[in-house]
Specification:
Layout (H helix, E strand, L loop, with lengths): L1 H15 L5 H55 L28
Helix pairs in contact: 1-2
Amino acid sequence: MEELVNIGETLFSLVGGRRKSVSSALSKRRQTSQTEHRLEQAQDKLERLEEQRANRVLELDEKKEALRDQENSKMDDIEEKSVRPKKKDIDVRFFGVLWVPTLN
């Protein structure tokens, strides 16, 4: 909208005898066009990155599920065995008496 106003002002100034630079309106138009182009590029890049992120999240979920399945299958292979301690396997490293007075 501002561009149209600036172009209109430029045309009226040329007709009215007052000199207003056409280059300023063209410069603003060029800047607007470049900004729109950069915005489109940024939006495209954002879409690509979001798609890559979504793909990587799916891959990660698949890998996590595969690891869970692998661990669950290993858990099924575990056998429970009873082990009785022997006196020779017991080693006393510290022995002491603890006395705690009671407050009655």
